[in-house]
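task queued by scheduler; priority normal; single chain, no ligands, no partner chains; default sampling; output format set to structure tokens
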Amino acid sequence: MSVRTTLLLSVLLAVLGGGRVLAHARLIRALPRVGATIRGSPQELRLSFSETIEPRRSSVTLRGLGGAAPTGPLALDANDARVVRVPLRERLPPGNYRVDWSVTSRDTHHTFGDFTFSIAP
């Protein structure tokens, strides 16, 4: 095999096979939905990611006008290790809220982000 062919195959394998290795967990869905205005307080936050999440190295915080809202411990959904569930300990009053998330996927890549939602009066 020529040097040129070997180099071409190496590049092709890196491009096709390396995508998974370089992947980071992306937020693909959230409940409440990103930017949504909902009626009534949710009972939990549900964040769905593109990768399996390592819960011990991940966190989700919720902030409203009065500061941090009390939440229960972060846990993976029993049926899907890409879904993080965070129970809310108290009913949230109407207002604007910000969810800050920081997750580490099972392949040890760390990502973070935030989104907002509102509760209508």
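post-processing summary
- The mean pLDDT is 88.
- The CA atoms of residues 12 and 18 lie 9 Å apart.
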